[in-house]
Amino acid sequence: MKVLVIGSGGREHALVWKIAQSKKVSKLFCAPGNGGIAELAQCVNIQAEDINGLLEFAVGNGIELTVVGPEIPLALGIVDVFQQHNLKIFGPAKAASQLESSKVFAKNIMKKYHVPTADFKTFRGKDEALAYVRQRQKPLVIKADGLCAGKGVFVCPQLLEQEQAIKAIMQDNVFGEAGKVIIVEEILRGEEASILVISDGKSVISLASSQDHKRIFDQDQGPNTGGMGAYSPAPVVTGTLLARIHKEIIIPTIEGMQKEGTPYCGVLYAGVMITETGPKALEFNVRFGDPETQAILPRLKTDLVEVMLKTQERRLNEIELSWRDEACVCVVIASGGYPGKYEKGRQIFGLDELKTEKDIVVFHAGTKKENGKIFTSGGRVLGVAGLGRDIKQAIDRTYAAVSKVRFDDLHYRRDIAYRALERINAG
Ligand code: AMP
Ligand code: GLY
Q: Residue 188: which residues within 8 A CB-CB, separation 6 or more?
Protein backbone atom coordinates (compact mmCIF):
# COMPACT_ATOMS: atom_id res chain seq x y z
CA MET A 1 0.00 0.00 0.00
CA LYS A 2 0.97 3.65 -0.43
CA VAL A 3 1.61 5.48 2.82
CA LEU A 4 2.11 9.19 3.54
CA VAL A 5 3.77 10.44 6.73
CA ILE A 6 3.29 14.10 7.64
CA GLY A 7 6.04 16.08 9.36
CA SER A 8 9.74 16.77 9.17
CA GLY A 9 11.41 16.03 12.51
CA GLY A 10 13.22 13.20 14.25
CA ARG A 11 9.91 11.67 15.31
CA GLU A 12 8.79 11.51 11.69
CA HIS A 13 12.10 9.97 10.61
CA ALA A 14 11.56 7.27 13.25
CA LEU A 15 8.00 6.71 12.01
CA VAL A 16 9.18 6.53 8.39
CA TRP A 17 12.02 4.16 9.37
CA LYS A 18 9.59 1.83 11.13
CA ILE A 19 6.84 2.05 8.51
CA ALA A 20 9.35 1.38 5.72
CA GLN A 21 10.00 -2.04 7.32
CA SER A 22 6.38 -3.11 6.91
CA LYS A 23 5.73 -5.72 4.24
CA LYS A 24 2.42 -4.02 3.54
CA VAL A 25 4.09 -0.86 2.24
CA SER A 26 4.91 -0.55 -1.44
CA LYS A 27 5.58 3.17 -1.63
CA LEU A 28 6.29 5.68 1.13
CA PHE A 29 5.97 9.47 0.95
CA CYS A 30 6.76 12.12 3.54
CA ALA A 31 5.56 15.72 3.55
CA PRO A 32 7.75 17.67 3.82
CA GLY A 33 10.37 15.28 5.29
CA ASN A 34 14.08 16.04 5.76
CA GLY A 35 17.54 15.00 4.59
CA GLY A 36 17.48 11.63 6.38
CA ILE A 37 13.88 10.79 5.57
CA ALA A 38 14.72 11.33 1.89
CA GLU A 39 16.71 8.09 1.96
CA LEU A 40 13.65 6.01 2.90
CA ALA A 41 10.70 7.92 1.48
CA GLN A 42 9.92 10.24 -1.37
CA CYS A 43 9.77 13.71 0.18
CA VAL A 44 7.06 16.01 -1.13
CA ASN A 45 7.27 19.71 -0.58
CA ILE A 46 3.97 20.30 1.22
CA GLN A 47 3.99 21.77 4.72
CA ALA A 48 2.32 19.91 7.59
CA GLU A 49 -0.18 22.76 8.10
CA ASP A 50 -1.31 22.81 4.48
CA ILE A 51 -4.36 20.59 4.91
CA ASN A 52 -5.78 21.23 1.44
CA GLY A 53 -2.42 20.63 -0.20
CA LEU A 54 -2.01 17.34 1.67
CA LEU A 55 -5.55 16.26 0.79
CA GLU A 56 -4.98 17.00 -2.87
CA PHE A 57 -1.73 15.01 -2.79
CA ALA A 58 -3.33 12.04 -1.01
CA VAL A 59 -6.25 11.89 -3.43
CA GLY A 60 -4.07 12.46 -6.49
CA ASN A 61 -1.54 9.79 -5.51
CA GLY A 62 -3.86 7.09 -4.23
CA ILE A 63 -2.53 7.25 -0.65
CA GLU A 64 -4.05 4.39 1.35
CA LEU A 65 -2.86 5.41 4.80
CA THR A 66 -1.75 8.79 6.15
CA VAL A 67 0.14 9.06 9.44
CA VAL A 68 0.23 12.45 11.15
CA GLY A 69 3.37 13.33 13.15
CA PRO A 70 2.90 16.81 14.63
CA GLU A 71 -0.03 18.27 16.57
CA ILE A 72 -0.86 21.28 14.42
CA PRO A 73 -2.51 19.45 11.49
CA LEU A 74 -4.47 17.36 14.03
CA ALA A 75 -5.67 20.50 15.81
CA LEU A 76 -6.61 21.96 12.42
CA GLY A 77 -8.82 18.95 11.74
CA ILE A 78 -6.85 17.05 9.09
CA VAL A 79 -8.36 13.75 10.27
CA ASP A 80 -11.92 15.00 9.85
CA VAL A 81 -11.15 16.36 6.36
CA PHE A 82 -9.42 13.15 5.20
CA GLN A 83 -12.19 10.96 6.58
CA GLN A 84 -14.82 13.06 4.78
CA HIS A 85 -12.96 12.06 1.62
CA ASN A 86 -12.89 8.38 2.66
CA LEU A 87 -9.14 8.42 3.20
CA LYS A 88 -7.60 6.34 5.96
CA ILE A 89 -5.64 8.46 8.39
CA PHE A 90 -4.04 7.66 11.74
CA GLY A 91 -4.65 10.25 14.45
CA PRO A 92 -7.47 11.77 16.50
CA ALA A 93 -10.23 13.96 15.05
CA LYS A 94 -10.25 17.68 15.73
CA ALA A 95 -12.63 17.44 18.69
CA ALA A 96 -10.51 14.75 20.37
CA SER A 97 -7.30 16.66 19.59
CA GLN A 98 -8.46 19.29 22.05
CA LEU A 99 -6.82 17.12 24.71
CA GLU A 100 -3.62 18.82 23.52
CA SER A 101 -4.84 21.96 21.74
CA SER A 102 -6.73 23.22 24.80
CA LYS A 103 -5.30 22.69 28.26
CA VAL A 104 -8.61 23.89 29.71
CA PHE A 105 -10.45 21.17 27.77
CA ALA A 106 -7.94 18.57 28.99
CA LYS A 107 -8.13 19.67 32.62
CA ASN A 108 -11.93 19.69 32.53
CA ILE A 109 -11.97 16.14 31.17
CA MET A 110 -9.55 15.10 33.91
CA LYS A 111 -11.68 16.76 36.56
CA LYS A 112 -14.95 15.32 35.29
CA TYR A 113 -13.58 11.78 35.03
CA HIS A 114 -11.55 11.88 38.25
CA VAL A 115 -8.11 11.62 36.65
CA PRO A 116 -5.49 12.60 39.24
CA THR A 117 -3.87 15.89 38.20
CA ALA A 118 -2.67 19.14 39.77
CA ASP A 119 -5.43 21.28 41.34
CA PHE A 120 -6.15 24.16 39.01
CA LYS A 121 -8.20 27.22 38.24
CA THR A 122 -9.03 28.76 34.87
CA PHE A 123 -8.83 32.51 34.21
CA ARG A 124 -10.09 34.61 31.32
CA GLY A 125 -8.87 37.96 32.65
CA LYS A 126 -5.44 39.14 33.77
CA ASP A 127 -6.64 41.02 36.85
CA GLU A 128 -8.48 38.06 38.33
CA ALA A 129 -5.46 35.83 37.70
CA LEU A 130 -3.09 38.33 39.34
CA ALA A 131 -5.39 38.73 42.34
CA TYR A 132 -5.55 34.97 42.70
CA VAL A 133 -1.79 34.33 42.69
CA ARG A 134 -1.20 37.26 45.08
CA GLN A 135 -3.68 35.78 47.48
CA ARG A 136 -2.34 32.20 47.16
CA GLN A 137 1.32 33.07 47.93
CA LYS A 138 2.67 29.65 46.94
CA PRO A 139 4.62 28.01 44.10
CA LEU A 140 2.35 27.72 41.04
CA VAL A 141 2.42 26.82 37.36
CA ILE A 142 0.98 29.24 34.78
CA LYS A 143 -0.13 27.71 31.46
CA ALA A 144 -1.51 29.23 28.31
CA ASP A 145 -4.56 27.29 27.12
CA GLY A 146 -3.68 26.82 23.46
CA LEU A 147 -0.80 25.42 21.39
CA CYS A 148 2.44 27.34 21.98
CA ALA A 149 5.06 24.99 20.46
CA GLY A 150 5.95 23.70 23.93
CA LYS A 151 6.66 27.18 25.30
CA GLY A 152 3.37 27.96 27.02
CA VAL A 153 4.13 26.54 30.48
CA PHE A 154 5.82 28.54 33.24
CA VAL A 155 6.78 26.75 36.42
CA CYS A 156 6.99 29.61 38.93
CA PRO A 157 8.07 29.03 42.53
CA GLN A 158 7.94 32.80 43.25
CA LEU A 159 5.08 35.34 43.09
CA LEU A 160 7.15 37.74 40.95
CA GLU A 161 7.64 35.07 38.25
CA GLN A 162 3.94 34.20 38.41
CA GLU A 163 2.98 37.84 37.84
CA GLN A 164 5.47 38.13 34.97
CA ALA A 165 4.12 35.00 33.30
CA ILE A 166 0.50 36.16 33.60
CA LYS A 167 1.39 39.58 32.19
CA ALA A 168 3.43 38.10 29.33
CA ILE A 169 0.54 35.85 28.30
CA MET A 170 -2.49 38.06 29.00
CA GLN A 171 -1.12 41.61 28.59
CA ASP A 172 1.75 41.33 26.10
CA ASN A 173 -0.08 38.52 24.28
CA VAL A 174 3.15 36.65 23.55
CA PHE A 175 1.13 33.61 22.44
CA GLY A 176 -1.69 35.56 20.76
CA GLU A 177 -5.04 33.76 20.84
CA ALA A 178 -3.49 30.71 22.53
CA GLY A 179 -3.11 32.82 25.69
CA LYS A 180 -6.64 34.26 25.89
CA VAL A 181 -7.38 31.82 28.69
CA ILE A 182 -4.86 30.54 31.22
CA ILE A 183 -4.63 27.86 33.83
CA VAL A 184 -3.01 28.38 37.21
CA GLU A 185 -2.19 25.14 38.95
CA GLU A 186 -0.22 23.76 41.86
CA ILE A 187 3.35 22.59 41.27
CA LEU A 188 3.76 18.84 41.42
CA ARG A 189 7.03 17.32 42.61
CA GLY A 190 8.51 14.02 41.52
CA GLU A 191 10.01 12.29 38.49
CA GLU A 192 8.34 12.63 35.09
CA ALA A 193 7.64 9.82 32.63
CA SER A 194 6.04 9.67 29.21
CA ILE A 195 3.31 7.09 28.82
CA LEU A 196 2.20 6.52 25.25
CA VAL A 197 -0.76 4.36 24.36
CA ILE A 198 -2.71 3.68 21.19
CA SER A 199 -6.48 3.63 21.29
CA ASP A 200 -9.18 2.97 18.72
CA GLY A 201 -11.71 4.74 20.90
CA LYS A 202 -12.44 1.70 23.05
CA SER A 203 -9.46 -0.65 23.31
CA VAL A 204 -6.12 0.60 24.55
CA ILE A 205 -2.66 -0.85 24.04
CA SER A 206 0.41 0.43 25.78
CA LEU A 207 3.68 1.39 24.13
CA ALA A 208 6.91 0.98 26.11
CA SER A 209 7.55 3.61 28.79
CA SER A 210 10.11 6.32 28.22
CA GLN A 211 11.61 9.47 29.67
CA ASP A 212 12.50 12.71 27.95
CA HIS A 213 15.19 15.29 28.88
CA LYS A 214 13.81 18.75 28.25
CA ARG A 215 16.61 21.06 29.44
CA ILE A 216 19.50 21.99 27.17
CA PHE A 217 22.36 21.25 29.59
CA ASP A 218 23.46 18.29 31.69
CA GLN A 219 21.85 17.77 35.10
CA ASP A 220 18.68 19.42 33.76
CA GLN A 221 20.17 22.90 33.69
CA GLY A 222 19.41 25.79 31.34
CA PRO A 223 16.35 26.57 29.24
CA ASN A 224 13.73 24.09 28.04
CA THR A 225 14.06 22.61 24.56
CA GLY A 226 11.98 20.37 22.33
CA GLY A 227 13.80 17.44 24.01
CA MET A 228 17.52 16.62 24.12
CA GLY A 229 17.26 12.87 24.46
CA ALA A 230 15.14 9.99 25.65
CA TYR A 231 15.39 6.41 26.73
CA SER A 232 13.11 3.43 26.97
CA PRO A 233 12.07 1.65 29.09
CA ALA A 234 12.01 4.08 32.04
CA PRO A 235 12.73 2.01 35.17
CA VAL A 236 10.77 4.51 37.29
CA VAL A 237 7.68 3.05 35.62
CA THR A 238 7.49 -0.37 37.21
CA GLY A 239 4.83 -2.85 36.10
CA THR A 240 2.67 -2.03 39.10
CA LEU A 241 2.99 1.68 38.47
CA LEU A 242 2.14 1.28 34.79
CA ALA A 243 -0.99 -0.68 35.72
CA ARG A 244 -1.96 2.11 38.10
CA ILE A 245 -1.35 4.80 35.44
CA HIS A 246 -3.62 2.87 33.09
CA LYS A 247 -6.35 2.40 35.65
CA GLU A 248 -6.28 5.93 37.05
CA ILE A 249 -5.24 8.11 34.09
CA ILE A 250 -5.47 6.41 30.69
CA ILE A 251 -8.66 4.37 30.93
CA PRO A 252 -10.81 7.08 32.57
CA THR A 253 -9.64 9.54 29.90
CA ILE A 254 -10.38 7.21 26.97
CA GLU A 255 -13.75 6.28 28.49
CA GLY A 256 -14.47 9.91 29.27
CA MET A 257 -13.77 10.95 25.69
CA GLN A 258 -16.11 8.21 24.49
CA LYS A 259 -18.87 9.42 26.84
CA GLU A 260 -18.36 13.01 25.68
CA GLY A 261 -19.04 11.92 22.11
CA THR A 262 -15.45 12.67 21.07
CA PRO A 263 -13.91 9.18 20.98
CA TYR A 264 -10.13 9.12 20.99
CA CYS A 265 -8.49 7.30 18.12
CA GLY A 266 -4.71 7.44 17.70
CA VAL A 267 -1.68 7.76 19.95
CA LEU A 268 -2.31 9.36 23.31
CA TYR A 269 0.73 10.64 25.15
CA ALA A 270 0.30 11.29 28.86
CA GLY A 271 2.99 13.32 30.58
CA VAL A 272 2.89 11.90 34.09
CA MET A 273 4.49 13.09 37.32
CA ILE A 274 5.25 10.27 39.71
CA THR A 275 4.54 12.03 43.01
CA GLU A 276 4.78 10.68 46.54
CA THR A 277 1.04 10.10 46.52
CA GLY A 278 1.02 8.39 43.14
CA PRO A 279 1.00 9.23 39.43
CA LYS A 280 -0.66 12.47 38.33
CA ALA A 281 -1.29 13.63 34.76
CA LEU A 282 0.61 16.79 33.80
CA GLU A 283 -0.63 17.04 30.25
CA PHE A 284 -1.83 15.12 27.23
CA ASN A 285 -0.39 15.17 23.74
CA VAL A 286 -2.36 13.72 20.87
CA ARG A 287 0.65 12.42 18.93
CA PHE A 288 3.87 10.50 19.33
CA GLY A 289 6.46 12.19 21.55
CA ASP A 290 9.64 13.68 20.16
CA PRO A 291 12.28 12.38 21.01
CA GLU A 292 10.52 9.53 22.90
CA THR A 293 9.47 7.91 19.60
CA GLN A 294 13.11 7.65 18.53
CA ALA A 295 13.81 5.59 21.68
CA ILE A 296 10.59 3.54 21.58
CA LEU A 297 10.22 2.43 17.96
CA PRO A 298 13.64 0.74 17.66
CA ARG A 299 12.38 -1.61 20.41
CA LEU A 300 9.07 -2.42 18.73
CA LYS A 301 8.97 -5.71 16.83
CA THR A 302 5.33 -5.55 15.69
CA ASP A 303 4.47 -4.08 12.29
CA LEU A 304 3.35 -0.51 13.05
CA VAL A 305 1.28 -0.27 9.85
CA GLU A 306 -0.72 -3.28 10.97
CA VAL A 307 -1.35 -1.58 14.33
CA MET A 308 -2.43 1.63 12.65
CA LEU A 309 -4.79 -0.16 10.28
CA LYS A 310 -6.39 -2.09 13.13
CA THR A 311 -6.83 1.21 14.98
CA GLN A 312 -8.65 2.58 11.94
CA GLU A 313 -10.89 -0.46 11.79
CA ARG A 314 -11.63 -0.24 15.54
CA ARG A 315 -10.14 -3.72 15.93
CA LEU A 316 -7.19 -2.88 18.12
CA ASN A 317 -8.22 -5.63 20.53
CA GLU A 318 -6.80 -8.07 17.96
CA ILE A 319 -3.28 -6.67 18.39
CA GLU A 320 -0.65 -7.57 20.91
CA LEU A 321 2.58 -5.63 20.69
CA SER A 322 5.86 -7.42 20.91
CA TRP A 323 9.07 -5.72 22.06
CA ARG A 324 12.78 -6.33 21.98
CA ASP A 325 14.17 -6.83 25.48
CA GLU A 326 17.00 -4.40 24.85
CA ALA A 327 16.98 -0.85 26.20
CA CYS A 328 17.21 2.07 23.79
CA VAL A 329 18.81 5.46 24.31
CA CYS A 330 18.44 8.40 21.94
CA VAL A 331 20.82 11.35 22.20
CA VAL A 332 19.90 14.52 20.33
CA ILE A 333 22.70 16.45 18.64
CA ALA A 334 21.81 20.12 18.32
CA SER A 335 23.30 23.22 16.72
CA GLY A 336 25.31 25.28 19.23
CA GLY A 337 23.16 28.10 20.58
CA TYR A 338 19.87 26.17 20.39
CA PRO A 339 17.20 26.75 21.81
CA GLY A 340 18.31 30.36 21.23
CA LYS A 341 19.96 31.57 18.04
CA TYR A 342 22.05 29.14 16.00
CA GLU A 343 23.68 28.80 12.59
CA LYS A 344 22.30 26.62 9.79
CA GLY A 345 23.88 25.14 6.68
CA ARG A 346 26.83 23.37 8.30
CA GLN A 347 27.98 20.19 6.61
CA ILE A 348 27.61 17.05 8.71
CA PHE A 349 30.34 14.38 8.62
CA GLY A 350 30.55 10.85 9.95
CA LEU A 351 27.04 9.66 9.08
CA ASP A 352 28.04 7.09 6.44
CA GLU A 353 30.18 5.21 8.92
CA LEU A 354 27.21 4.84 11.28
CA LYS A 355 24.95 3.35 8.62
CA THR A 356 26.56 -0.05 8.95
CA GLU A 357 26.79 -0.01 12.73
CA LYS A 358 24.70 -2.72 14.31
CA ASP A 359 22.02 -1.55 16.74
CA ILE A 360 22.56 2.13 15.95
CA VAL A 361 20.11 4.24 13.97
CA VAL A 362 20.56 7.92 13.24
CA PHE A 363 17.30 9.85 12.97
CA HIS A 364 17.48 13.20 11.24
CA ALA A 365 15.55 16.17 12.62
CA GLY A 366 16.93 19.42 11.20
CA THR A 367 18.91 18.34 8.14
CA LYS A 368 18.86 19.01 4.43
CA LYS A 369 20.36 16.96 1.63
CA GLU A 370 22.07 18.82 -1.19
CA ASN A 371 24.18 17.22 -3.93
CA GLY A 372 24.53 14.07 -1.88
CA LYS A 373 25.81 15.95 1.17
CA ILE A 374 23.93 16.48 4.42
CA PHE A 375 23.74 19.94 6.02
CA THR A 376 22.22 21.24 9.26
CA SER A 377 18.93 23.09 8.84
CA GLY A 378 17.51 23.35 12.33
CA GLY A 379 18.16 23.56 16.07
CA ARG A 380 17.82 19.88 16.83
CA VAL A 381 19.79 18.26 14.04
CA LEU A 382 20.04 14.51 14.70
CA GLY A 383 18.90 11.89 17.18
CA VAL A 384 21.33 9.01 17.54
CA ALA A 385 19.54 5.94 18.91
CA GLY A 386 21.33 2.87 20.20
CA LEU A 387 20.15 -0.45 21.59
CA GLY A 388 21.93 -2.41 24.30
CA ARG A 389 21.19 -5.44 26.45
CA ASP A 390 20.65 -3.00 29.32
CA ILE A 391 20.55 0.74 29.73
CA LYS A 392 24.27 0.92 30.54
CA GLN A 393 25.26 -0.80 27.30
CA ALA A 394 22.75 1.26 25.34
CA ILE A 395 24.26 4.46 26.76
CA ASP A 396 27.83 3.37 25.94
CA ARG A 397 26.98 2.32 22.39
CA THR A 398 24.96 5.43 21.69
CA TYR A 399 27.64 7.83 22.93
CA ALA A 400 30.33 5.94 20.99
CA ALA A 401 28.23 6.55 17.88
CA VAL A 402 27.52 10.18 18.80
CA SER A 403 31.25 10.87 19.04
CA LYS A 404 31.64 9.92 15.38
CA VAL A 405 29.29 12.66 14.16
CA ARG A 406 30.96 15.95 13.35
CA PHE A 407 29.82 19.42 12.40
CA ASP A 408 30.89 22.85 13.55
CA ASP A 409 29.66 23.93 16.97
CA LEU A 410 27.51 20.91 17.75
CA HIS A 411 26.04 20.40 21.19
CA TYR A 412 24.61 17.40 23.00
CA ARG A 413 23.94 16.36 26.57
CA ARG A 414 26.34 13.83 28.03
CA ASP A 415 23.97 12.53 30.68
CA ILE A 416 21.00 11.12 28.78
CA ALA A 417 19.40 8.29 30.80
CA TYR A 418 21.28 9.27 33.95
CA ARG A 419 18.20 8.78 36.12
CA ALA A 420 17.88 5.20 34.90
CA LEU A 421 21.56 4.59 35.68
CA GLU A 422 21.18 6.10 39.15
CA ARG A 423 18.23 3.85 39.79
CA ILE A 424 20.21 0.76 38.69
CA ASN A 425 23.30 1.79 40.67
CA ALA A 426 21.15 2.35 43.75
CA GLY A 427 20.04 -1.27 43.32
P1 AMP B 1 3.08 20.54 29.82
O2 AMP B 1 3.21 21.14 28.44
O3 AMP B 1 1.82 20.84 30.52
O4 AMP B 1 3.54 19.13 29.93
O5 AMP B 1 4.25 21.21 30.63
C6 AMP B 1 5.58 21.15 30.20
C7 AMP B 1 6.44 20.79 31.35
O8 AMP B 1 6.20 21.69 32.44
C9 AMP B 1 6.16 19.42 31.94
O10 AMP B 1 6.84 18.42 31.24
C11 AMP B 1 6.68 19.59 33.35
O12 AMP B 1 8.08 19.47 33.39
C13 AMP B 1 6.31 21.01 33.66
N14 AMP B 1 5.02 21.08 34.37
C15 AMP B 1 3.79 21.23 33.84
N16 AMP B 1 2.85 21.23 34.79
C17 AMP B 1 3.49 21.09 35.96
C18 AMP B 1 3.08 21.00 37.34
N19 AMP B 1 1.80 21.11 37.69
N20 AMP B 1 4.02 20.84 38.27
C21 AMP B 1 5.33 20.75 37.94
N22 AMP B 1 5.79 20.81 36.68
C23 AMP B 1 4.88 20.99 35.71
N1 GLY C 1 8.89 15.06 24.33
C2 GLY C 1 7.87 15.99 24.55
C3 GLY C 1 6.86 16.05 23.50
O4 GLY C 1 6.89 15.33 22.53
O5 GLY C 1 5.96 16.86 23.64
A: 118, 273, 275, 280, 282
